């Protein structure tokens, strides 16, 4: 089980990278795609979605960095921190990537597009090193 303490934060970091790429793609798309003569990014609802994406990413980053920092400080076990980082980062990345697909419209599901690929990739990360429900049990047992 101590091996999972090491690998769960790495899965969280991978999910974080996918989410950041999805946000970058969404920013580019919404700034360049026009609707009724104005960039999609000018719409308040789109701005709200982008803000939520950034918030999810920053919260996931902080949990991931905390788990890595605890391990670097020599903590013998980081089971709770690792499970929290892995759970939040993968679930947040799923939300961010799903929103990116929405913001891309039909292009978001076009085979070969970046966000379509991210959408498929994040699913595996939600399973590696214990599915999300397993992480919830690990966290609950540590309380």
From TrEMBL:
Keywords: FAD, Flavoprotein, Oxidoreductase. GO terms for biological process: fatty acid beta-oxidation using acyl-CoA dehydrogenase. SUPFAM superfamilies: Acyl-CoA dehydrogenase C-terminal domain-like (SSF47203). InterPro entries: Acyl-CoA_dehydrogenase (IPR050741), AcylCo_DH-like_C (IPR036250), AcylCo_DH/oxidase_C (IPR009075). Gene3D superfamilies: Butyryl-CoA Dehydrogenase, subunit A, domain 3. GO terms for cellular component: cytoplasm. This is Acyl-CoA dehydrogenase family protein.
């Amino acid at each position: 089980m101590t091996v999972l303490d090491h690998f769960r934060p790495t899965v969280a970091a991978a999910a974080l990278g996918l989410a950041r790429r999805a946000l970058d793609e969404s920013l580019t798309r919404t700034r360049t795609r026009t609707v009724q003569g104005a960039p999609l990014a000018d719409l308040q609802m789109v701005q709200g979605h982008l803000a939520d994406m950034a918030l999810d990413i920053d919260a996931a980053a902080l949990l991931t960095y905390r788990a890595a920092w605890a391990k670097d400080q020599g903590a013998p076990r980081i089971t709770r921190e690792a499970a929290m980082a892995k759970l939040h980062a993968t679930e947040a990345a799923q939300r961010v990537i799903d929103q990116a697909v929405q913001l891309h419209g039909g292009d978001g599901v076009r085979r070969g597009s970046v966000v379509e690929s991210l959408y498929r990739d994040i699913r595996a990360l939600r399973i590696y090193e214990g599915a999300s429900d397993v992480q919830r049990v690990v966290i609950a047992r540590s309380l």
